[in-house]
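Batch job 17 of 40 flagged for manual review because the log was empty.
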Amino acid sequence: MNIPTSTPVLVTGATGYVAGWIIKDLLEAGVTVHAAVRDPDNADKLKHLTDIAAASKGTLRFFKSELLERGSFADAMSGCSVVFHTASPFTLNVKNPQRDLIDPAVNGTRNVLETAASTPSVKRVVVTSSCVAIYTDAIDCAKAPGGVLTEEIWNTTASLSYEPYSYSKTMAEKEAWKIAEKSPGFRLVTINPSLVIGPALAKKPTSESFNIVRQMGDGTAKMGAPKIGLGVVDVRDLSKAHLAAAFRDDAEGRHIVSGHNTNILELGKSLIEKYGDTYPVPRKSVPKWAVWLLGPMLNGISRRFVTNNVDIPWKADNSKSRTRLGVTYRPLKVSMEDMFQQMIDAGTFKR
């Protein structure tokens, strides 16, 4: 894949889990990266990026930008040919879903894409959406044509009161396509990853993925884990998908980027061979009736969610990402071991 280096590119949410790997790959290819961050003077938070830049062919420049401030990305976007919009909150426990999830996701997307529409140099925008813009619960897979999720499907079951994160990603992606349809100056390509796993570049990653894996090493899941159906993708493979979406001439539309159809228990079991003797990783499943009974009290999991996800297979078609973006997916075991080892090295668990 040819990655042009004559013009800069913008990455929003530059300190994020996925953004870090995108920036790393761009810098190593020799690209000038404009990194949009809240506080460009926070040297400690940006150190992992500046260290990568120092060892790479490319150039890194930081720009102060606020997701909800209109026009905030204009300076950072000036002269850029490609915009990677990765900035969006990923958290499952919020007090005010409208304020904490919907507004940042939708209004932030609107701000970035409207700025792109008014910036002549921008020719392509890659938005990091999510598979949850396609589905809410694993049971939605069974309801899909052929029992498999595809890019043609949109999430119709999430709402402000049920799985608001999924709702926020759905509404944000719809807003992106709405603006793109009226903006002939650039082409929009969306990446729809499943749960992202694998090592982070920042010292203190905040993605919800690390909260899930943390429970597999701190004893929370020592009695077992539920078979909650989901898909997973390694963050490094996901970064390569973003670059292909930005620089391949034929990249268009939505792309499910998911390496494996699996469940929470299988994620835990992938760690047994290497870590089972020293850490309390889950080895068996928690019965659905027990999750249904105790989930709301212990983990805040709704019984509707348990009914629709536990012991329900998750299936998605990733063929478009493989054929149109050229993505190859590394083994789940490799991704989980690399992620778990990083958490061990960071002192997340006690033996």
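Reviewer: the log was empty due to a logging misconfiguration, but the result itself is present. Residues 97-117 form the longest helix (21 residues). Unflagging and moving on to job 18.
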